[in-house]
Amino acid sequence: VKKLGSPLCACGFVGDADHYVFRCPLTAEFHLKEPSEEHRKSWFKNLRYNGQAQSKLIQAYKISNDICDWLTQG
User: Fold this and answer.
1) What is the spatial distance between Cα 38 and Cα 60, in angstroms, rounded to a whole number?
2) What DSSP character marks residue 42?
3) Measured distance between the N- and C-terminal CA atoms of the chain, rounded to whole angstroms
4) Angle subtended at Cα 64 by Cα 41 and Cα 54, rounded to the nearest 5 degrees
5) Separation between Cα atoms, residue 13 and residue 36, nearest integer Å
6) Bridge-partner residues for 14, per DSSP?
7) Facing residues of 8 across strands?
8) Cα–Cα dist 64/3, whole Å
9) Would you call 1 helix, strand, or coil by DSSP?
10) What is the DSSP string of 7-19?
11) How far is residue 66 from each of residues 36, 49, 61, 73, measured CA to CA in Å?
């Protein structure tokens, strides 16, 4: 079980935003294709116009929030 305050996700990897959106097995259903480093800036800039990607992001963040809530419960 993850200790509160640890940077690790419940799956064992670092739980940053990129992890939940691109790599976490707990949010796999909502993963987006990770852009190459050279296209990353424009990819994120154009994200605001991509409704399907926004929907996947929202779902992935809901799951990551649920994980945080689960970890902070008694």
Assistant:
1) 24
2) H
3) 13
4) 45
5) 21
6) 8
7) 14
8) 15
9) coil
10) SB-TTSSB--HHI
11) 29, 26, 8, 11
Query: Tell me: the pLDDT tens digits for 15-74?
Result: 888 898 899 998 888 888 999 999 999 998 988 899 998 998 888 888 888 877 877 775
CB atoms within 10 A of CB 15: 21
Place of tokens 């809901």: 62
Tell me the pTM.
0.64
Q: Which two tokens stand for residue 27?
A: 């949010």
Q: How far is CA 1 from the centre of its chain?
A: 19
Tokens 């799951």, residue located: 63
pLDDT at 2 over 80: no
Question: What is the per-residue burial (b if ≥16 Cβ within 10 Å, else e) of 31-45?
Answer: ebeeeeeeeeeebee
